[in-house]
Amino acid sequence: MMQGGTQSEESGQPIPTVSRLLGGRSELWCGGGRAEMCARWSALVLLLVLLCVTVRRAVAVELVVVHYELLGERSPALLAALADAVRAVRAAEQHVLVLNAAGADLGLPADAHAVGVQSMGGLGSVPLVSHVGGPTVAANLQLPAPLATAVTASVTLELGAAGRVGLVGVVPTSLEAERAGGAVTDPLQAVGQEAARLRAAGVGTVLALGRLDGETALQVAQQLPGLDGLVIPGGLRPHAVYPLPVGRDAGGALPLLEAPLVAAPGYLGVVTLTLAADGRVSGWRGRVVPIRAPAPPPAAAPPVAAGTGFCPPVAGQVGGTLSELDGRIDSCSQRECSLGSTLADALLLAAVTPSASSWSEVSLAVLSAGALSTSLPRCAVSEADLAAAVTTNATAVTLSLAGIHLRQVLEVSAAGRGSAAFLQTAGVRVVYDVTRPAGRRVRRLEVLCSQCVTPRYEEVRAGAMYRLVTTSYLAAGGHGYRVLPRRGRAVADSGRPVRDILRHYLRSRSPVPPPTGGRVFFSGQDGPVSDPPARSPTTSTSTERTTTAAAAVTTTAAPPAGGTRPAETIGEALQSTSVSQMVLNSALWSLSGFFMLGMMITAFF
Predict the structure, then answer these.
(1) CATH superfamily placement of domain 317-546
(2) I need a surface site. Which of 25, 177, 239, 282 has the fewest CB within 10 A?
(3) pLDDT per residue over 391-439, tens digit each?
(4) Residue 10 has pLDDT above 70, yes or no
(5) Where are the domains of the chain?
(6) Is 80 exceeded by the pLDDT of residue 565?
(7) Burial class for 298, CB neighbours closer than 10 Å (0-12, 13-18, 19+)
(8) Is 40 helix (H, G, I), strand (E, B) or coil?
(9) pLDDT band at 37 (very low <50, low <70, confident <90, very high)
(10) Average pLDDT over the chain, rounded to whole?
């Protein structure tokens, strides 16, 4: 036997062993007589270490990123609900980052805050750099002392098995930093340089956060290969996938954490990032949790207003009517119905925004027949009557839409006559010609003017912009109204369910009279339509009855292999790196490691 080797039975040539590879130094560890046995055990130990490293690299590490925003009110009850939701995620997950990408000062601690905006009334606004609990980050903002000490370009955190995570702040070029004696530099250059510096310092995962508009956010995501994710404020734009996968110029995809349109005054975005061994993001999945304050206890029902004294009071009364308000699906899916018109009037009244030169910027309202189920009785209306008549849980959303696309919305309604998709309106007069082919049935369309002090009906112009209030269900593309999320621009989400808006309308205006007619006409008629030829109405409205835009949006997304396709509904997933695939990869790594171990043991013993 040769020192540090053995001979092959066939060739007689020495076979290298670990003892030979160590240059015969195993005698220093174990003594000359036990050198060969010691070398074998040394090889076994090294192999076990290699196997542990292999298995550790095969098991994916998950990092949970939480970001939040309040879109309107900031009541103590709403802030408490948001804080409870954050605590619940921290308690349920192991590696959690809480980020305040909107930069608002809500008094909630976070691992990093973006620079916000503080209004100075008529003097404009200044950067908001002071936050409670956590650093404020901005790589492209230069401020004079002492404000400069409150902002840092980035922060690095140690998150155990998730490794080192760098958080880079960014502000939009529109930020009025000069009012505070500062300046805003190019976000692409500043964020790119800071991300590269963190990479050189050994940081595995780099995320950016800040108040960027959609176009700038896409440029940052596409052009900066050093980033693993980008977090921006959201909650106002309807889109089907969360997080949004953005294709990089250098290949692959990056998750854009922008929450979709939510029917609530606030949201909590929860995204789970799957990290590779080097810290880079290899996959993700996300969900959006609507944030609402607990409902206040119901107020005592007001007395029935004068003029309805002949109506006996009922338990849980919310108001009264002078006539039955027809909300039957077989009526509302064929023509304008009194309950549909009343609810549309209530939505429009709640969204009216008067100014010195305009009676209201929002001048029309539309909702689908699927939001209704049955009629409201004459006289006293109870809470039970209201719940039975208005079955949708959707909220009121204000959109801005071009006239050409508003006409397309009414074309969808014309094609959906006899179904839950048929529209009930306020501030709209439309003439349908059902003898024309689909897509050309709107013969005339008028809406109330918005740039006027006295409202009057005007012909819709293709290039003009109109603001309308509708339900969050339709705003997200429900009942086939895909033109709304694709062409509409979200202006405001009231967070108020349409049933609550009708309740307030009944309380404040009882006894409610029959609504004004003459909103929907059919070709050849001079007034509101009478019953059309008998058709089989589609009475199934379970989609809108059971679907609420306030429900949590759960989607899954991962870097696509060949680009992305648009999802048809909220909640449809894009996933190219699945959990099953990761489990299979882990199993293959482990099996290969054990096979190597068996071969080495056989060779040495």
Answers:
(1) 5'-Nucleotidase, C-terminal domain (3.90.780.10)
(2) 25
(3) 888 899 999 999 999 999 999 999 999 999 999 999 999 999 988 998 9
(4) no
(5) 17-57+587-604, 59-292+553-574, 317-546
(6) no
(7) exposed
(8) helix
(9) low
(10) 78
- Tell me, what's the pLDDT at 154? 94
Instruction: Measure the CA–CA gap between 493 and 69, rounded to whole angstroms.
Output: 13
Q: Is the dihedral of CA 355, 519, 537, 480 positive or negative?
A: negative
Report the half-sphere exposure of 308 (CA within 13 A, side-chain side).
23
Mean pLDDT, range 365-388, rounded to an integer: 92
Tokens 């809406």 correspond to 447
Number of neighbours of residue 157 by Cβ within 10 angstroms = 16
SS3 for 484-541 is: HHHHCEEEEEEEEEHHHHHHHHHHHHCCECCCCCCCEEECCCCCCCCCCCCCCCCCCC
User: Which has the closest alpha carbon to 336: 473, 542, 530, 506?
Assistant: 530
pLDDT at res. 56: 45
Q: Are 195 and 101 in contact (CB under 8 A)?
A: no
Return the beta strands (E) in 422-501 as ranges: 423-426, 428-432, 442-448, 457-459, 465-471, 489-497
CATH 3.40.190.10 assigned to 59-292+553-574? no
Q: In this structure, what token pair is assigned to residue 239?
A: 């889109």
Give the tens place of pLDDT for each residue, 83-142.
Answer: 999 999 999 998 999 999 988 888 888 999 998 876 444 444 567 777 778 899 999 988
Which H, E and C letters describe 164-180, residue by residue? EEEEEEECCCCCCHHHH
Q: What is the DSSP string of 297-352?
A: PPPPPPPPPTT-TTSPP-TTEEEEESS-B---HHHHTTS--HHHHHHHHHHHHHH-
